[in-house]
Fold these 2 entries.
Entry 1:
Amino acid sequence: MEERWFPGAVALLLLLLAAGGAIPPPEDAARMARFVLHNCDWGALATLSAQEGLRGHPFANIFSLSDGPPGPLSGSGVPYLYLTDMEISVQDLEINSNASLTVSLAQTPYCKKHRYDPQNPLCAHIIFSGNVIKVNDSEAGLAKKALFSRHPEMESWPKDHNWFFAKFNITHIWVLDYFGGLKIVTPEEYYNVKP
Amino acid sequence: MEERWFPGAVALLLLLLAAGGAIPPPEDAARMARFVLHNCDWGALATLSAQEGLRGHPFANIFSLSDGPPGPLSGSGVPYLYLTDMEISVQDLEINSNASLTVSLAQTPYCKKHRYDPQNPLCAHIIFSGNVIKVNDSEAGLAKKALFSRHPEMESWPKDHNWFFAKFNITHIWVLDYFGGLKIVTPEEYYNVKP
């Protein structure tokens, strides 16, 4: 039976599935923002450092994230995080919760496949500004499902680290997905759009 | 002839070549920092925003980088960047050049291959603090070779954007590559180590 499959078609299908659906057109910036976030398992978070001698300097760090279980069209758009006070960036956030989060299709197979350089706008990336907040008990279930479904090893992370569920509370969104500069998307547009 | 190759061995060899050499042991934090930077083609750069209404807030963005042509043991450790004043983060840097740069093995095939979550310290990531500066004419040749060898499309980027070569001037380095918290590496240790 196997000979009846076209390997190219199978590879393409797998790639589309892996990418969580087809990429939106670049004029649809709100959908693009949702698409890129949902297809990224992690992002870079920038905080204002609270460290001795570096207070107020920018500080970039890496965190796993999830806006919902994997698969196309299933993301909530909310970047959930699994944090501990032992993390240096979380200590920054306790002093000043302002933060910025960036995710890029360079993190997925998409840009390599299309031979787009990571700094080429066609290798879309999204910048969020806002703050990081602990989620309340009613939202913790959603956050847990979103995170643990995509980051199964989180369940076994050391209990004495006092992990908690948090979210990036989005106040500003910039989309770089085409030539001509950054596009601004409002949180309302972002959350109301069909992904 | 092809049957005489062991596909697994070939795949491993390709992976090692792609990864630019073998990963250093985690106790060798300076070498790990050099290894991760050299194996990443891009990073997330955090600046202090100069935007109206967001002045002084952290701002995370994505930039291509290179510390030297691809291949194992050939990196200089210096993160070179190709920038334009049209970039919003570069406008931030013109007001305040303090910045932070992070690179992660999550950007390479390494963590997926070993099934390490991006937030697992074994999926090593490095955080640099410092500032971004334009390189002088004598260093521009090095920067150009480092960047254009790994980002060939840069050569064709629009001339009217007034691109210039810059580097991330490293003042602090943190390495997260094992359990037990961040390790501090000095720029001296970092630049003096054999990669």
Entry 2:
Amino acid sequence: MRIVLVGSGNLATRTALALSEAGNPPIQVWSRNAEHAVRLASMLPGATATDRAEELICDADLYLLAVSDHALETVAAALPSTTGIWAHTAGSMPMDALRPYHETIGVFYPLQTFSRERRVDYSSIPIYIEGSDEAVVRLLESVGRLISRDVLRCTSEQRLYLHLAAVFACNFTNHLYALSEQMLAEHGLPPRSLAPLIAETAAKVQEMSATEAQTGPAKRDDTNTLQKHLGLLDPYPDWQEIYRMLSDSIRKMYGPKE
Amino acid sequence: MRIVLVGSGNLATRTALALSEAGNPPIQVWSRNAEHAVRLASMLPGATATDRAEELICDADLYLLAVSDHALETVAAALPSTTGIWAHTAGSMPMDALRPYHETIGVFYPLQTFSRERRVDYSSIPIYIEGSDEAVVRLLESVGRLISRDVLRCTSEQRLYLHLAAVFACNFTNHLYALSEQMLAEHGLPPRSLAPLIAETAAKVQEMSATEAQTGPAKRDDTNTLQKHLGLLDPYPDWQEIYRMLSDSIRKMYGPKE
């Protein structure tokens, strides 16, 4: 399978390295940032790098557009006409975002949070596939199975909600970790004090539903503790408002139904 | 060490079992719920159970009051006079909550989320210790070290903030998992779709700070995606408000400083 990778960010890098480990590295890396393209290509046996549209290999089987959601259409518009399939990796973009630029299109969406410095076990990442026809879906599924045990189909509409749910379960939870780190720092407590708690909270929902796993003063409707916490947050009105809103949401979920 | 356990909930149960595995099971379990007391005591070699104050063993070294924060004072008031140390396990209660009821007092606060059905590795749970004098602190530290690698001292005031930070990092993040599960269910997506993402998000902050680990549209200030998500949440005004508030908080943390 001749794959051209368009992009050189975290997701592009992790996906290219996983394909390479599976014995099918991209044959070319195209990026608007020439230096990034060269750096990534140097890690992929046999791959070339370019930042120029006219140097793009035009007869590959698959062009994987691994660029950020907001850059997708600009990048697609900049690519020359090619053979093969164009598939993007952008959670919040419909497949049809590629429609004006190419005929045979699809989506290849690995649902994970990627950081440049951190290795992830790609084989456990679910990859969500969509294609403009069944042959595209089959080809993207076969590429997905090279690097993951968990390749699934979903529609553009489902993917929107998947991405939205991921923002809650990943980006927002990480922000709550960040707020808790600030609280620890401001009160002379070691920054890793909550690490075992964070690990256990995430481990629990690998086995049970989050509604079963819920604990804490809002779940118990322990108004004494809730009031005490709101008082402690008086000097931090933004955090106080977050506390109030999430506690109300928990009480609504578990409290007596009206 | 002769320990009497007061309480029979999740924290009491996990702590008693850990003490038992360490070769020092509580010698008695007292609980307002007689059935729970009997069930827990039956798992502890040599332990008796009671729900009656007059049957409490009165010459133990340590009375561990492992009851919920809001029940603590009622339970302490119901106990007869004894020798030894009284220590409570309630994150949001100051040590001095026990002062009206006993002289030699302390706090033994294992910072973790406990569920009845789920085993936890107690040895990795940090235990925060406080005592009315240095001898109490030393005794509680030695009990803590029987079951955990991580025994620390903190003041009542620090523990308040620790507990508050734990609500953000555990109870609120679990609630965000619960909201994301509801979104998946409403759009025909498998309930475990986000499990690898949740695991990775928590694993990242075991190694780096949460501010370094932050990703997502709010961090990138990707207003297109933010607007799209807010639109999807139109039918769910509570979730929309949570989305808006947490995204604003993220943008404030990472955006250009005023």
